[in-house]
Amino acid sequence: MKEYRYEYMFPNDFVQALKECPVFIVPTGLLEWHANHLPLGQDALKIHIICLEAARKLGGGIVLPPNYYGRPGFSTYAGTLTYSEELMYPLFYETMEQLKKAGGKVIAIITGHYGDCQVDFLKKVAADFQRANPDVRIIAKPEYEGVTVDGKVPGDHAGKWETSMFWYLYPDKIRWETYDQKMDDMKIYFDAPYDVYRESANWDFGEDLRETSSVELGRKAVDAISDVIVADIRRALGEL
Questions:
Q1: Alpha-carbon distance 228 to 240, whole Å?
Q2: pLDDT by residue (tens digit) across 7-52?
Q3: Which of 37, 51, 67, 90 is the most buried (most CB within 10 A)?
């Protein structure tokens, strides 16, 4: 079986893979509260598998290990770790520099962690790098961008879409027995050192996810998202 995971490749295979398809796919997420039924690493765990599926459909490219460092994020909610733009900017910029050095002509940074704070940051650092490096193509986007499933954009925070995708990808890692539609006092950190993002002490999904989410919906979302990532990469390769 063809290997797409950077960390499992041997040097000769790595070099050959880039000769055949000079593409790096960078899945990024966050360690962040996702209600009581999803694990804290949900964002990165989810997008890593989606990126691997995109590479499989593309028939090439190298997928980096998932990154768990990003911008807020529900900073005061249980288990969430968020970081400053001053720290994250050089991390992502230098990662792109390293991937270009390694032979990447297309670098796709796909975030499974949403919110304006994260998405705007990624697009900013990607645009800065693209301007300085016109000989490569940079894609930086949230996983849901440009995607629809049954006429809807498959993006939320621990709601129907993320729950369905995670249920499909990791069926043994979802805890329906601890699911709550409404939760109080989710804010437990009151000295968050960085930005706080649209937070309140109470949470209400407004629907029972046990009824509105499903493995099949998750499969459709993963399939649609990976298809769009492939189309974006093929378009970028065609521009070189």
A1: 19
A2: 999 999 999 999 999 999 999 999 999 999 999 999 999 999 999 9
A3: 51
